[in-house]
Structure formats: structure tokens, C-alpha cells
Amino acid sequence: MLNIADLRNTTYDPATVMPRAKLEVADASAVVEPIIDQVRHGGATAVLELTERFDGLRPQTLRVPTSAMDRALEELESDVRVALEESIARARAVHDAQLPPDTVVPLADGARVENHWLPIQRVGLYVPGGRAVYPSSVIMNVVPAQAAGVPSIAVTSPPQTDFDGLPHPVILAACQLLGVEEVYATGGAQAIAMFGLGADDDAGNTVCAPVDLITGPGNVYVAAAKQAFLGQVGIDAVAGPSEILVLADQTAHPAWVAADLISQSEHDPLAASVLVTTSMDLAEAVVAEIEAQVPGAVLEDQIREALTGQQSGALVVETLDEAIEVTNAIATEHLELQTADNDAVLEKITHAGAVFLGAFAPVPLGDYSAGSNHVLPTSGTARFSSGLNTVSFLRLQQRIHYDKTGLEPLSKGIQALATSEGLHAHADAIRHRFDEM
Ligand SMILES: NC(=O)c1ccc[n+]([C@@H]2O[C@H](COP(=O)([O-])OP(=O)(O)OC[C@H]3O[C@@H](n4cnc5c(N)ncnc54)[C@H](O)[C@@H]3O)[C@@H](O)[C@H]2O)c1
Ligand SMILES: N[C@H](CO)Cc1c[nH]c[nH+]1
Ligand SMILES: [Zn+2]
């Protein structure tokens, strides 16, 4: 089911050896443009109509009523509650530690600059709910926003047929545990449009106020809609399907590697599961394990489609350095290191959204409870971006404090620079303060 490519004694390009699945974002953009337009003109009623069209059911109200939120928490199974609370506590510890300190930089007498971090004022957090529902993504979006001090947090997730057109009750309960009261029952591009534009009811009352930043993972329609708002509203990332790469040598445990590769493939038929190894014996054992573990899996069809796609496979290379080079070139969302000396390999890893070290740090640990964030850069964007974190919800404001003593020694130099740029009014603004014009 997982194809093995033997790259030993061959010439290959690490950058193209493992192509990603083709994501039809352009096609999805054509679908989402009219959806966004409809929300722009029709507000909350349009969001409800579109929800009915794409999710097959119309929520009674777009905003989830408080009574439903309370009920979800009351009815939450105790083992799930305990696990959510543990996951929240660990995520809080990690995300609170990401809060950068303000700094004051004295530069000369009467001259200092301060670096001051400000929270984004209002954020809209998307929690997927199509093929699967993701209460864990509530935690991964809300906790960093709260760590950053965001005062206004709204969450949205698609309505579920089995739950009266409300988002999944565990999603609502997770919101309750986190103290988030503003929750909407809509998904897809219409949810992103609601956040980006705001939505009023037919009488002109605000149902959802527009947000300053939209974060959270989602399918290709969610990604295309986020892309459409780029530049108008902050966007964390335009996410692609989930990805795992396991870099392993002969010391790895084949059944566990196989299970980890299968785990991420159940997210999406386009999910990427890749093994990069120096051991043909391991590659063959992992493939045999996959053949044994997949039949009968709950999401077997989806798993098979993902594992047999061009984006998934096992690559056998000659040396550990080659394995590291291929891994860095792929720049995967999740990287597992399962080698005899993971710390030495880690030193050479430059590109990966998050790195999981050793046999007892599998990706599902990070998906739920490690404390790290599971909203991570996909599609090779780990080359230039980070996973969702506390700083994603902050803006750096530089505060410039100069008095006359501070400005005077720079006066002539600024005038010279401004004149060299042909910007004489800039020079004059300085000159006015020290010379008669
Ligand atoms: N990176 C992460 O942290 C992370 C976490 C969880 C999930 N994910 C990924 O998020 C994705 C979730 O996708 P999903 O589909 O399950 O849920 P989703 O909530 O992203 O999308 C469901 C919505 O898509 C809309 N939709 C469906 N078909 C449509 C169509 N033909 N035209 C217009 N709109 C349509 C519907 O409105 C529906 O509510 C998966 O790819 C998963 O791998 C990523
Ligand atoms: N692996 C996903 C991110 O790619 C996150 C997730 C949530 N629940 C389970 N998994
Ligand atoms: Zn996962």
C-alpha cells in the first residue's frame, strides 16, 4: 500500500523526490468567491442559507445559545473532560512561555526605543468539522490567543446533523472549559466570510462583528476563503492537508512507525505519510505492518487513498546525512525522529513544523496533549513559517521616545539622508526644529 523507492546508488533531486498532492485551491477559489459575495450582501441570513446548502442543515440560530453551551459541558463524559483539562493545562504552560517580553532600548541621552507587544483585539478561530470533528483544535487556537491577551475571541465550527444543527458537543464543551462564550454554528467559506466581513441580521443588528485575525485549519474551501481575505484581515496560514515524515534507521520499531504513518493518513485522502530511512529492512517491515494494520480501520478507504497517493511513500537512502537532506527539502508539517542518536540528527534539521523525538513521542501526542500546538505549517511552508503560537496573536508596536537632546546629534545626518533621497520636506521637518528656515 505504501510504495518503496530505493534511492541508493541513484541520482535524485531531494527537492522533488516526494511531490505533494495536487490541491485544487484555484478551483476552490472560484467556488468561494460567490459565497463571500453572498455573505457580503446577505449577512447572517446568507450565512445560514449557505450552511444549509453545503452542510445539508440549517442551524436554528447562527450563534450557539448559552443554554446549549451549558448543556454540552454538563453532559461531557468525565474521561474526556479530564483529558481536555490536562491538554489545556499543558498547552497553557507552553504558550504562556512564548509570550515575549517588552524591551526598552536606551540609545543615547534623550533617545530610546521601546518594543511593545500588543494583543490583536478580536480574533475568529475556525475549528474544522467536516470529515471529522476537532475539539482539540479549539484548544490549539484558543490557548495561544488567551496567552497573548486577546480580549475578544469568537469560535466557529460546522453544524452537525446528529446534534440538532449545533457544532459537536465536545467542541462546545471545550469552549466552555476555556471560557469562550461566542461560538457560531457554521463552517466552510461562509464561516470565514462571516469573520472577515461581519454579519448582521435582516433588521441590521450585529450577529457577528468582523474580526482582525482569522486562524485555524480547514479544508480547501476554508483555505481558499482565507486566502481571499489576505491583506484585509490577518490570516495565520493557508493550510493544506496533514503531513507526517518519519526519519528512521534500523533501530526503529516497524509497527509503531507504521501506526504513526497511518494515523495522519486518516485526516484526509490527500494527507501525506512519508518514511525516509537508511534501512531497506525497516522500510519493508513498515510496509508489511501497514498491510496488516489498515484492513478494518474505521476510515480504511480514506487511509488507503492517502497512503497510495503520490504524496506518500517510503524513501530508502544510503546515509543518514542523505536522509536529513531529503527531510529538510520536504519541510514536513510533523517530523518524527526514530534513530539511534536523535539529538545528533536534530542538530541538522532545519525545516520541519514540529519535531517529535523518539519512540514515545508520536505525532498523536502532539495532536492532543503534548502542550505544543498542532496547527502547523504544511505544504513546505515550514521553510518560512511557524506553527500557531502566542506571537501569532500579537503585534509589535515600536515606541519612539526622543527629546531635543536625543534628536539634535542626528539632525544633520537625517537631513543629509533625506536630501540624498530627494525628499526635501523630510529634511525640512528636522531643520525647522533647530534652524531658522
Ligand atoms: N493542521 C491542523 O492543525 C489540522 C487540524 C485539524 C484538521 N486539519 C485538516 O483540516 C481539514 C478539515 O477538513 P474537513 O473537510 O474535515 O472540515 P472543514 O470544517 O474544514 O470543512 C467543512 C466545510 O466545508 C464546506 N464544504 C464542503 N464541501 C463543499 C463544497 N463542495 N463547496 C463549498 N463548501 C464546501 C462545508 O461548508 C463544510 O462545513 C482536513 O484536511 C484536516 O487534515 C488540520
Ligand atoms: N494532525 C492534525 C494536524 O495536522 C491535528 C489533529 C487534530 N486531531 C487529531 N489530529
Ligand atoms: Zn492528527
TrEMBL record:
Record EC number: 1.1.1.23
Keyword annotations: Amino-acid biosynthesis, Histidine biosynthesis, Metal-binding, NAD, Oxidoreductase, Zinc
Oxidoreductase is among the record's keywords: yes
Cofactor notes: Binds 1 zinc ion per subunit.
Pathway linked to the protein: Amino-acid biosynthesis; L-histidine biosynthesis; L-histidine from 5-phospho-alpha-D-ribose 1-diphosphate: step 9/9
SUPFAM superfamilies attached to this UniProt entry: ALDH-like
Pfam (any one): Histidinol_dh
Residues binding substrate: S242, Q264, H267, H334, D367, E421, H426
Active-site residues from the entry: E333, H334
Catalytic activity of the protein: L-histidinol + 2 NAD(+) + H2O = L-histidine + 2 NADH + 3 H(+)
Needed co-factor(s): Zn(2+)
UniProt family annotation: Belongs to the histidinol dehydrogenase family.
Database matches in HAMAP family: HisD
Function: Catalyzes the sequential NAD-dependent oxidations of L-histidinol to L-histidinaldehyde and then to L-histidine.
Protein's UniProt name: Histidinol dehydrogenase
Species of origin: Yaniella flava
